[in-house]
Write a structure and sequence with these properties.
Order of helices and strands: HHHHH
Oligomer: single chain
């Protein structure tokens, strides 16, 4: 099903497509991008330890003690807030364009689509 047909069906059902499609996309991007950032942080720390183990065997405790001795909790907050703001702005950018798109004319059997 094409996006424009979905929007037309929502309008026929008296549902506001901007509210239904746009709000859920903005909410999903705002919540999921910070979670994705946290998951990427954990994966990067694990891969850094594996790389350190490959170069010179060290324990996990020593890796965390030396790697995080100068790190504070405020070092983690700005990237998470930044991805939340980015998710909100990227979620806002597409729904308005998708809802404003007009339906394309359908080709009949007598008129094949031009390449």
């Amino acid at each position: 099903m094409k996006l424009t047909e979905q929007i037309d069906a929502m309008e026929a059902s008296a549902v506001d497509p901007h509210k239904y499609l746009g709000a859920t996309r903005v909410r999903a991007c705002t919540l999921m991008l910070p979670l994705l950032t946290i998951a990427a942080d954990f994966v990067s720390i694990a891969m850094a330890w594996i790389t350190a183990m490959w170069a010179e065997p060290i324990s996990l405790c020593f890796f965390f003690e030396t790697g995080f001795k100068d790190a504070t909790f405020t070092d983690l907050i700005p990237p998470i807030v930044e991805t939340s703001v980015f998710g909100r702005s990227s979620g806002w950018s597409r729904p308005s364009r998708a809802c404003a798109r007009k339906a394309e004319p359908k080709a009949s059997a007598a008129q094949p689509l031009a390449p």
